[in-house]
Amino acid sequence: MSIINNKKAFHDYFIEEQIEAGIVLEGWEVKAIRAGRVQIKESYIQWKKGAFYLVGSHITALPTASNHVKPDPVRQRKLLLKQSEINKLIGKVERSGYTLVPVNMHYSHGYVKIDMGLAKGKKLHDKRQSSKEKDWNREKQRLMKQAR
After folding, report:
1. Cα 21 from Cα 43, distance rounded (Å)
2. For the CA atoms of 24, 46, 2, 139, what is the dihedral angle to 10 degrees?
3. CA-angle at 18, arms to 16 and 22, nearest 5°
4. Tell me, what's the pLDDT at 22?
5. Mean per-residue pLDDT for 105-129?
6. In the predicted model, is pLDDT for residue 66 greater than 80?
7. How many helices, marked H, and strands, marked E, lie in the chain?
8. DSSP-based three-state secondary structure for 47
């Protein structure tokens, strides 16, 4: 079940491959995510200190959060991946000029997971072409519906 999608990622990048990863979260973050108080539009994934981190995502604390916990809504969250996946991603990101962007946050067997996309940036003319294709497909669907 999907929690949030990053539509901007598909607009700004060519997503070539998607990889699912777990996220290290605190208790108040899980509760806030279940309440739908998460935003990943401006976030990205960065390699640092031997692990991948989700940077720039914003999880707003619930007003009922406990007093002894000081919530940091934009802290870096560690991603959980297998070593073989890490090695493959490092090779692509370092050598091939790819970047990692979060595409989707969802539940899997009760855990919060994130789909990250191995992406190459789009140029302005690519974005225009994508929007033309999207408009044409929408118009085509509308015409087909009227023809029935």
Report:
1. 15
2. 180
3. 155
4. 94
5. 86
6. no
7. 4, 9
8. strand
Q: What one-letter code names the amino acid at 65?
A: A
Q: Which two tokens stand for residue 2?
A: 């999907």
Entry pTM: 0.79
Which residues fall within 8 angstroms of residue 2, CB to CB, at 6 or more apart? Answer: 104, 105, 106
* C-alpha of 135 from chain center: 24
Res 80: pLDDT: 94
Q: Which two tokens stand for residue 34?
A: 């279940």
Across the chain, mean pLDDT equals 87
Model confidence at 107, pLDDT cuts 50, 70, 90, reads very high
Model confidence at 115, pLDDT cuts 50, 70, 90, reads: very high
Task: Supply 84's token pair.
Answer: 């073989």
**Is residue 120 classed as helix, strand or coil in its secondary structure?**
strand
Tell me the C-alpha distance between 4 and 105, whole Å: 5
> Are the beta carbons of 76 and 55 closer than 8 angstroms?
yes
Listed residue (12, 13, 100) closest to 55, CA to CA: 100
* CB neighbour class for 92 (10 Å; exposed up to 12, middle 13-18, buried from 19): middle
Nearest alpha carbon to residue 118 among 137, 136, 84, 94: 94
